[in-house]
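Subject: mismatched residue count in predicted assembly?

I count 812 residues in my input, but I want to confirm that the predicted structure covers every chain. Input:
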Amino acid sequence: MPFAFDLPAIFAFVIAFAIFAYVVMDGFDLGIGILFQAIPAGQERDSAMNSIAPVWDGNETWLVLGGGGLLAAFPLAYGMILSALYAPIIAMLLALVFRGVAFEFRWRDPAHRAFWDVAFSVGSVVATLAQGITLGGLLQGVAVANRGYAGGWFDWLSPFSLLVGVSLVAGYALLGATWLIMKSEGPLQERCYRLALRLGVAVIVAMAAVSVWTPFLRDAYWLRWFAWPQVLFTAQVPLLVAIASAVFFFSLRRRHHYTPFLMALGLFTLGLAGLGISLYPYIVPPAVSIWDAAAPDVSLKFMLPGVLVMVPIILAYTGYSYWVFRGKTGHEGYH
Amino acid sequence: MFEAFDAIVLARAQFAFTVSFHFIFPSFSIGLASYLAVLEGLWLWTGRQVYLDLFKYWLKIFALAFGMGVVSGIVMAYQFGTNWAAFSDKAGPVIGPLMAYEVLTAFFLEAGFLGVMLFGMNRVGPTLHFVATLAVAIGTFISAFWILSANSWMHTPAGFAMNAGGQFVPVDWLAVIFNPSFPYRLVHTVFGAYLTTALVVGAVGAWHLLRARSTDRGTDDGARVMFSMAMGMITVVAPLQILAGDQHGLNTLEHQPVKVMAMEGHFESYNSGAPLILFGWPDQAAGVTRYAVEVPKASSLILKHSLDAPLNGLDTVDRKEWPPVAIVFWAFRIMVGMGMLMLALAAFSLLARVRRRLYDWPLLHRFALAMGPAGFVAVIAGWVTTEVGRQPYTVYGLLRTADSVSRLDAPAVAASLLAFIVVYFVVFGAGVFYILKLMSHPPHRGEQGPDRGAPVRAAGLTPSPAVAESLATGREV
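Triage response: the counts match. Full output below for your records.
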């Protein structure tokens, strides 16, 4: 076959990018929810909330793009994954309802602010846990037959999926803590430095545990990581994780404002790259590849210009919105 | 078999519940976003303080409504996969890209500029802030465009072929997007959203006019302006909406005649002039509409524009093709009834305006107050009419609902349905309560925006003395 655009592969990359954008952006605002009970009520909490209030809605839109994009580009996989992971998906959606409304409700009802703050934290924890379990449940494989899900209602529940769930909670919390280091000062920032240190350790342990476990889930993953010669390529991932971790702890010690967040982002990027290495080209392991699940070319071709034109524009005005609200939240005299 | 049937009914109930709840918020926020853009534009143009006050007043309400629309909307993006996996597989290649375009061109635009719109006035200045407001308002339209195109395609599919895997494959995208019912549905729905918002704004204005009257307080400028604007909007849009609805109905008659038969309660065919059944009880099992109150030949007049035109009934169609007639019949009557009441309000307010009694005619204000929720009722009833009228198909005439559902256990769907009901009533019940609480205060001069109660959010600009003090002392305001 002569070289041609492999549209399913392009869209696999697009979906992966949407998931990446979602995880790093909603990751830090979910992370603030996870840490919310560790932040004293009053000024510190308000300031933490204010640092994400103008942007959380845009962050969560990437989740809609992930879902909508999956339906559009890989309709078969969309149906299989969401049916297979029914319970965690529904739990995630309901949890997101609670935490999403808390942004406005807590200001509208001071008498019940403590209630909406709990809704915000519990919603954030449950949504994150459910996302991690979804990912773990997908990685460990989904039973399919006749273009549909063929497993049971609790197939997703396993020690591995729970481990991924807990790991993601630690990961988002780390993103949240380092985001607040960047956006706050004074007691809140100092508190976040301490939290980030502990969370950093937890995240690295979790990443190691998931990474060690994953190749044992399926032979295909093992070969993907350890077969010669691509091990020369895949070995770069743990190496870079080690470097990013070192820089992360160094920057915490030196009380850098921006570096901890950037390194946390780096760790997430590497984690997702590792995920891509394990999965590609399967979208519903072990049986369904991106080419099996892809929508007809005519659908993908119709969307391609939209993606190529709109995503850069979206990134531009998202960047603008972040820029408008740049600087430390709740501190006088910055513009 | 019996269990599969249960799962289908439950999955349908879940979709109907989540989509109806969701639909309430955009049908309000589409109109409100436009209203906010108009208010801010008027403020920039005239410099009158009252427009800015009203803008900030409604912006707080918008923030709540929009937030609830967002979180209930995310649920919709996943409902297709969780409960309707077979539909997603088969129709995904056609409607998936339309929804992807909705996300790319509308959702990000709204979400990206919402932060600036809610919290950024002091940071970007009035002109750029107006641009953000416009971006959000335009985003709500683009969103309506794509989602109604996808929805319309399910009613009047066009521009596709079928492949070996049983999937719908798009052939002509323009034919897909501008499918036969789309232009009618779009106009009818957007007018519906405008009316919904105008009725709410009008009711809030009327409430404060009545309150000011009963407490002998001077009437608020803000309440007068919002009441006048809302009544003006209803006077213009209510008659147009009835026209648009009529055209939409004729379009439905052409493409989905069975739905119209159910709306009319016509089980039997009429060879010369079908009666308009005003009220009655459609008995699906017996195939008759009982206790019918009829206007002879009026249905033929409305649908065929001729008194003696023949009209087919459900007796010409296989029973397996019938939608649940009673639901469609009654939902349609509720919608039309609300439309007639809106027309009456439009006429009444026009009379009051002509007589220069718009602000001191308590009966008008009470009527407008009572009509506050009418838009929501009409929109949901209309939605039920068209969606239940599409049954027993998801893609009309081509893909049956029974063949669209995921392979799910009934207990799983039942449990999640219950969870949705509980969570939605708690969360959105609280949200509606907060909105009503905001509405119960009249708009006043120097109205605060949504950043009220969140002092640190605006700190660094011009913190109020109370905030500055709290920052200095570390106490909460």
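Residues 56 and 448 of chain B are 6 Å apart (CA to CA). Marking this ticket as 'not a bug'.
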